[in-house]
Specification:
Layout (H helix, E strand, L loop, with lengths): L1 E3 L13 H10 L2 E7 L3 H11 L5 E5 L13 H10 L4 E10 L10 H22 L3 E6 L2 H8 L8 E3 L6 H9 L3 E4 L10 H8 L5 E3 L21 H12 L3 H15 L5
Parallel strand pairs: 1-2, 2-3, 3-4, 4-5, 5-6, 6-7, 7-8
Helix pairs in contact: 8-9
Length: 263
């Protein structure tokens, strides 16, 4: 029984065969999936899907590379309304991204400032609604943690697709936050990330695919899909010297405590 805590089922890459993707996931033992949104339109698409899929829940939010899709104040009211949907289990995917170039019409300073404003507004909303958050970081670690950690008494975050060291993770875990591993841990050149997966305590981490990206070995280079979370679990089990059943049980229990609305 695997729990894929981050799978972009609303990606256009799944538009042609999503029913088959979900069937393969269930056949692989994936019993629960969280689908994070990237913008308001994507959130609506995912909620329409989740209404007919009992094993799918949705995180709604504005991804940092999509913050050019919102301006002013009206968008946060729309996001609040979407977040009240019974199939919403968290806010996400939200965060900061300093890797990609600014959207058209923004200077670098304006782009980063707008990302920070949108993130802060979503953190405020999550705290108001008592929802946890799924966090995106790309080359923005210090700024992201500086914005998120002050909310530690009001919400928990999962730093998804974590690629840092255990020393970076420790302050997060001490404040009740989590990290999550993708198929990167299965790569031969995983390095420090593999060491983190080996050392992080049970209850401090979850597993995900980030599908359609980052397919684990033995499917590296292919389109990723939620069935492959089982391969990520097997890779982590090997690193930790544990059974895959233990990794699956530990990460499922952690996810059930983190995300709202699951049995």
């Amino acid at each position: 029984m695997f729990f894929d805590t981050h799978t972009h089922l609303g990606s256009k890459q799944f538009d042609g065969d999503l029913p088959a993707v979900l069937t393969r996931a269930r056949a692989a033992g994936v019993t629960r999936m969280v689908a994070p949104a990237t913008d308001l339109a994507n959130a609506r698409k995912l909620l329409a899907l989740a209404e007919h899929e009992p094993d799918v829940r949705v995180a709604v939010g504005i991804h940092p590379t999509d913050v050019d899709s919102v301006s002013g104040e009206g968008w946060i009211s729309e996001l609040r309304e979407l977040a009240l949907h019974p199939k919403v289990c968290a806010l996400g995917e939200i965060g900061l991204d300093y890797f990609h170039a600014p959207a058209e019409g923004f200077t670098l300073a304006e782009w980063r400032s707008h990302q920070a404003r949108v993130l802060t507004a979503q953190l405020d909303l999550a705290a108001e609604l008592k929802l946890n958050v799924i966090l995106h970081n790309r080359e923005s670690w210090e700024d992201l943690t500086a914005l998120v950690l002050p909310y530690s008494d009001r919400l928990r975050g999962v730093f998804h697709c974590f690629t840092g060291t255990l020393e970076q993770a420790k302050p997060l875990l001490e404040h009740g936050h989590l990290i999550s591993f993708t198929g990167i841990v299965s790569f031969k050149n995983a390095g420090l990330i593999a060491e983190t997966a080996r050392s992080v305590p049970a209850g401090g981490y979850m597993i995900e695919t980030d599908a359609p990206y980052l397919a684990p070995v033995p499917n590296r280079g292919k389109r990723c899909e939620p069935a492959y979370v089982a391969d990520t679990a097997r890779a982590i089990a090997g690193l930790r010297g544990e059974t895959v059943e233990k990794v699956a049980a530990d990460t499922t229990q952690t996810a059930l405590q983190f995300f709202r609305g699951w049995d």
